């Protein structure tokens, strides 16, 4: 009787573990699967099956070739076989998967060896997370980043470029990949590089944005330095304001010329507003002084 009771308890314990496992499989939002050494599905959760518009039971014994385009299925086979052969995991690999209805989506995939009680590899276990929304946001950000007319870059505390958009690279006479890893001092005049690094370190230290204007190679820039939260680096967003500066300079020159002509005109020129003189040139001043102004 004692042996029967122990056997019953053992079965109940196994059943509890299986129930816990099944509860996890059925309720986790990620796709989970187990495959044997021939890459056939042994166990899949509901989310995995729903992606292929089928049921877990109908997926058992089948392979990726039954659910994916041939090219994508081959890539899965290569990865699964590598995991079994090497005994090493594949962590957070980003893949693009095609649904049966043609819809494409992005997933982050982790695959690990599946061992039996003798520590022999008998297949693979995998979990994938749908990151389509995140990927779409990243692609939109990347598009805006690369195509922005403003000069944008992330720089570390040593003044080395972590990333830079096309406009920043172009302003430095390089391609984007050519400036990553290089420092301000390799790409800019020493005085400009030193000043920018000082400001960058300040915003990292004080965790506050800083706005400055400077110039290099005859061009003027409006620069915004922003600390990156949780990192010892900063963003720099620079706008080339050379044309604006030239326009402002031309306006000042025109204003100075107009003022010189107005001030020295033999005709009396004045502006009288709300009972007060707003402007009076030299000739008009003499007329006021002599009581001749009308």
Would you give an account of this structure?
It is a single chain. A hairpin with a 4-residue loop joins strand 6 and strand 7. The strands form 3 sheets. The protein has a 5-stranded antiparallel β-sheet with strand order 2-1-5-4-3, with helices on both faces. The chain has a 5-stranded antiparallel β-sheet with strand order 7-6-10-9-8, sandwiched between helices. Strands 11-12 form a two-stranded antiparallel sheet. By secondary structure, the protein is of the alpha+beta class. The chain is 44% helix and 29% strand. It is built from 11 helices and 12 strands. It is elongated.
Roughly how many Å is the radius of gyration?
A: 35 Å
Strand order of the largest sheet: 2-1-5-4-3
Give start-end ranges of low-pLDDT stretches: none
Which structural class is indicated by helix and strand composition? alpha+beta
Record field, number of beta strands: 12
Q: What's the story with the biggest beta sheet?
A: 5 strands, antiparallel
The pLDDT mean sits at 87
Please give the alpha-carbon distance between the first and last residues.
Answer: 129 Å
Helical content stands at 40-55%
Please report which band the strand proportion falls in: under 5%, 5-15%, 15-25%, 25-35%, 35-45% or over 45%.
Answer: 25-35%
């Amino acid at each position: 009787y004692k042996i029967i009771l122990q056997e019953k308890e053992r079965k109940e314990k196994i059943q509890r573990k299986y129930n816990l496992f099944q509860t996890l499989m059925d309720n986790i939002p990620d796709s989970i699967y187990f495959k044997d050494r021939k890459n056939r599905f042994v166990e899949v959760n509901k989310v995995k099956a729903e992606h292929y518009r089928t049921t877990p039971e109908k997926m058992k014994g089948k392979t990726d070739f039954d659910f994916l385009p041939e090219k994508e299925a081959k890539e899965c086979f290569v990865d699964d076989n590598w995991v079994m052969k090497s005994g090493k995991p594949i962590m957070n690999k980003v893949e693009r998967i095609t649904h049966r209805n043609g819809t494409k989506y992005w997933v982050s995939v982790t695959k690990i060896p599946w061992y039996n009680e003798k520590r022999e590899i008998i297949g693979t276990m995998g979990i994938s997370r749908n990151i389509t929304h995140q990927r779409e946001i990243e692609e939109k950000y990347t598009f805006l980043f690369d195509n922005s007319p403003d000069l944008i870059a992330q720089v570390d505390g040593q003044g080395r470029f972590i990333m830079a958009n096309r406009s920043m690279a172009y302003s430095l006479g390089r391609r984007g990949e050519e400036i990553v890893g290089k420092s301000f001092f390799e790409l800019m005049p020493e005085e400009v590089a030193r000043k920018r690094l000082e400001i960058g370190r300040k915003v990292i230290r004080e965790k506050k944005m800083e706005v400055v204007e400077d110039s290099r190679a005859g061009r003027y820039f409006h620069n915004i330095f922003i600390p990156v939260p949780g990192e010892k680096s900063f963003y720099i967003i620079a706008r080339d304001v050379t044309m604006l500066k030239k326009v402002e300079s031309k306006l000042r020159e025109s204003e100075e010329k107009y003022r010189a002509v107005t001030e020295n005109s033999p005709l009396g020129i004045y502006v009288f507003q709300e009972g007060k003189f707003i402007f009076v040139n030299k000739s008009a001043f003499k007329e006021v002084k002599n009581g001749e102004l009308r």
